[in-house]
Structures are given as structure tokens and as C-alpha cells.
Write a structure and sequence with these properties.
Layout (H helix, E strand, L loop, with lengths): L2 E5 L4 H12 L3 E6 L7 H12 L4 E5 L8 H4 L4 E4 L14 H18 L7 E7 L22 H20 L2 E7 L2 E2 L8 H11 L2 E5 L5 E2 L2 E2 H14 L5 E4 L5 E2 H12 L4 E5 L14 H7 L7 H14 L4
Parallel strand pairs: 1-2, 1-4, 2-3, 4-5, 5-6, 6-11, 7-10, 8-13
Antiparallel strand pairs: 9-12
Helix pairs in contact: 1-2, 1-7, 4-5, 6-8, 6-10, 8-10
């Protein structure tokens, strides 16, 4: 049985990935520090699901503070999803937290892997590294140009991979994730916020005129990409992980209304610093590498997320 490490295991994507790995017969060690970016109780609910698996073990720790040598003993792959997320909060007073969790923690992991050339390192980067690209859809060769401190920290981690790969032969592959949604999504993300507000009859806040678009990606496809890339051992690559389709903010509101059968109350405000106009990924590299086929449309995916929220008593 292969032993793997998942950082950020109690989070949105991390818990889904850990669940899939356990189902596939992996022995999984999860690490999470329970950052206070949203309610700890939601992360603990994610963790409860994982603790039912016999081959799952959990460590509550900050990667910057824990000794990683014993944690990495016998590990064949590291799925590094731990990070401080969010574009808007990365401006100003919280930047030290982004630096610590997104850059320094990643560098510490890379240092710990210097003498472990057989360990495969899979990194969760972000579409935020592209910023406002001049040409859409973006390919993996599109020059990164982040427009937020968050995006800059994710790109800084990517730059370190090139250094460690060249100097120490570290086996690294980067997945640039685009607007992931689905059950257990973080409460600060748009789909969750819109579903909970509309269900409660409360107004939703829209920044700008609603014409901005996102390449929304259902969480199951992100998990599938991670697992298949790891199984195939595709190293030294960068992949866009997305649906390859644009949904505007105004279209998203209509989809949420359809999923809930309720009309949204919309309050519009000016655009915010660091917000990208539109994201749209070329996913042909991933399609060719693993047969990637994200065929869940946004209406179906958001309906699934709404069903989960209802079952969890959150709407």
C-alpha cells in the first residue's frame, strides 16, 4: 500500500482528495493547522468523515512549526493543498499570514524533501497567478501576471519549485486550480455565499456589473486530476485544472436561483482591488495527459452543492 501525505486535509478540496485516496486504498496522513479564515467547526466536520477510514491518520500542526522528517518517512507522494486562500484579504494587515502559509511553509516542505528524490510533490496553485491575461483562454505558457498579493505568493511558490527541481532533482508537478466549487466549499467563496444568502432571503453583494466571468470547476474533477497525475507519475509539469467554460457572475446568479427556486436580491458595489475580470483556461494539456473530461455543467454542480447544504442544515 502506498503512503501519502495531504496538507490542508481538513479543508474543502483537501478533504475530498483525502477521501478519494482512502477509497482507492492509499494509507493517508493528513495535516491541517485549522487556520481561522473560516469556522473551525466546518473543518472539523470534514475531518470527522476522514477519521472513519482505518488507513487515515491526522496531525494538527503548522507546517512551519512541526518537524517534518518523521512525518515524511515512508511517504511516496505529498499533495500540498495547505494555504491561506483568498484574494481580497491578502491586501494589507494579513499579508504576513499569506507569506507564512503560502511561501514559507512550502519552502520548508521542499527543504525536507531535498534528500528524498523518490517522493512526488503535487502542488495546488491557482488561476490567480495569471491575473488579467491579455488573451483568453490562458494556456500553461501564458506569462504569469498576478494582480493580488495572494496570487503573488502562489507564483513565488511555483518559482521555488524550479529552483529545487534544478538543484536537488525534486519531483514536482503544479496544478493551477480555477474557481473550485461543490459540497464543503469554503463559506467565503461566491457559490456558497450566494446559495446561503438566496436561500435565507438575504441580499447578495455583486462587485461590478456582473459581466465578469469565472471558469468554475467542480471539485470531483480536481480530485480526479490529482489522483490520475499521481498514478501516472507525470512530473515536472504545470496543468490548468478547470472546466474550460466561462460563466459570468450574472449567469451564476440565475443558476443559483434555478437551483433553489428562489429569486436573488442583488446589491451592486464597485469592483474590488485584486479581482480579475474573467478567468478561462485552456485544458487541452490535461485532456491529453489523463483524458480529463469535466462534463458536469455549472447548473448540475451547483444543484449538488445546494443539496449538500440542505442536508447539512446550512440552508
Amino acid at each position: 500500500m502506498k503512503r501519502v501525505l495531504v496538507t490542508g486535509a481538513a479543508g474543502f478540496i483537501g478533504s475530498h482528495l483525502t477521501e478519494r485516496l482512502c477509497e482507492d486504498g492509499y494509507e493517508v496522513t493528513g495535516i491541517d493547522s485549522f487556520l481561522d479564515n473560516y469556522q473551525r467547526g466546518l473543518k472539523e466536520e470534514n475531518l470527522k468523515r476522514l477519521l472513519d477510514y482505518e488507513d487515515f491518520s491526522f496531525i494538527e500542526a503548522d507546517l512551519n512549526e512541526i518537524g517534518l522528517t518523521p512525518v515524511l518517512d515512508g511517504i511516496s507522494a505529498v499533495f500540498h493543498l495547505a494555504a491561506r486562500p483568498g484574494v481580497r484579504d491578502s491586501w494589507g494587515l494579513h499579508f504576513d499570514e499569506y507569506l507564512s502559509n503560502n511561501v514559507l511553509a512550502t519552502q520548508k516542505l521542499l527543504e525536507a524533501l531535498k534528500d528524498r528524490p523518490d517522493v512526488f510533490f503535487l502542488y495546488a496553485s491557482s488561476s490567480s497567478v495569471y491575473g488579467d491575461a491579455d488573451v483568453l483562454p490562458v494556456t500553461e505558457e501564458t506569462p504569469p501576471r498576478p494582480v493580488s498579493p495572494y496570487g503573488a505568493t502562489k507564483l513565488a511558490a511555483e518559482d521555488m519549485f524550479d529552483l529545487y527541481k534544478r538543484e536537488y532533482g525534486t519531483r514536482v508537478t503544479t496544478l493551477r486550480l480555477f474557481s473550485v466549487y461543490g459540497p464543503r466549499q469554503r463559506p467565503d467563496m461566491a457559490v456558497h455565499k450566494f446559495l446561503t444568502a438566496v436561500a435565507a432571503g438575504k441580499p447578495i453583494t455583486v462587485y461590478g456589473d456582473g459581466s465578469s466571468g469565472r471558469d468554475y470547476t467542480y471539485v470531483d474533477y480536481v480530485v480526479d486530476a490529482y489522483v490520475k497525475i499521481a498514478e501516472k507519475g507525470i512530473e515536472g509539469a504545470v496543468f490548468n485544472v478547470a472546466s474550460g467554460k466561462i460563466t459570468t457572475l450574472n449567469e451564476l446568479i440565475k443558476v443559483v436561483e434555478s437551483a433553489l427556486g428562489k429569486k436573488a436580491i442583488v446589491e451592486r458595489l464597485p469592483g474590488q482591488p485584486g479581482d480579475v475580470g474573467t478567468t478561462h483556461a485552456d485544458i487541452s494539456r490535461l485532456e491529453e495527459a489523463i483524458g480529463f473530461d469535466p462534463n458536469t455543467d455549472v447548473l448540475e454542480g451547483i444543484a449538488k452543492q445546494a443539496t449538500y447544504l440542505k442536508g447539512a442544515g446550512l440552508i
